[in-house]
Design goal:
This protein has 2 helices and 12 strands, in the order αβαβββββββββββ. With 234 residues, the chain is mainly beta.
Length: 234
């Protein structure tokens, strides 16, 4: 599953580079689980988003397409525990992180000019949910060994809207512009199996139990970031 997801991500970025994307940007992202997902993950998620489009939104290109890639953490735990049942005097830190990767093909609509441009966007793609546990040195935090406890995939689609605010404009000489990007997205996700914070239970005798959840994976995300708009000339 992980290999398939990585191949899809690579294909999207190759497509973007061949097609000479004219905007590139990134944002910090907050995620709010919705509906069934919220009943199992009732906490704020956080992460980042990267995206690029094949044209800079405006009256000349009111509709443009691109790709969006995001990563967020929706649960995490740190437990200091003895290295083993027979070596109790040496302790290690066990870090468990519940994460979600998503990728979407994106269509953005913004037939406006000026220093403030509202826009709408539609998205279709997928989510990769995975929980990973790492054994770390207590003193240095250096990773010793890691394992993926559970992973799954769900399809995702939705819509969003936001505003682009011009921070720097050099259209007279280089057609370059830097824009503040503020937006929200509502993403519907199909069913997936996943682990939430606290879903891994150990009985102290080396036995591990997984409280696996299965539900739709709807998300509301809020983004604040920067977009670089430019023209490539060959």
């Amino acid at each position: 599953m992980k290999q398939k997801f990585i191949c899809i991500i690579a294909a999207l970025f190759v497509f973007g580079s061949i097609s000479n994307a004219q905007t590139l940007g990134g944002s910090l992202m907050l995620g709010f689980p919705q509906n069934e997902f919220k009943s199992n993950v009732d906490r704020l998620a956080y992460g980042f988003n990267l995206e690029g489009t094949l044209g800079s939104p405006g009256m000349e290109t009111p509709v443009t397409i691109g790709a969006s890639f995001g990563f967020m953490v929706y649960g995490e735990e740190d437990v200091v525990t003895p290295l083993s049942k027979t070596i109790g005097r040496v302790s290690v830190n066990v870090n468990t992180t519940n994460s979600l990767l998503n990728f979407h093909l994106m269509m953005k609509v913004s037939p406006f000019e000026g220093s403030v441009k509202p826009y709408l966007e539609g998205l279709a793609g997928g989510n990769y949910l995975f929980t990973e546990s790492k054994v770390e040195d207590v003193q240095s935090g250096e990773e010793v060994v890691s394992s993926t406890n559970l992973d799954d995939f769900s399809w995702s689609y939705g819509a969003g809207g936001g505003i682009l605010i011009s921070l720097f404009n050099d259209r007279e000489t280089s057609d370059a512009e830097i824009l503040l990007d503020i937006k929200a997205r509502y993403l519907y996700g199909t069913k997936a199996k996943y682990l939430a914070e606290g879903s891994i239970i150990e009985d102290g005798n080396g036995n591990v139990f997984y409280d696996i959840s299965e539900s739709t994976t709807d998300l509301l995300t809020i983004h604040v970031g920067v977009i670089f708009s430019f023209d490539l000339i060959f």
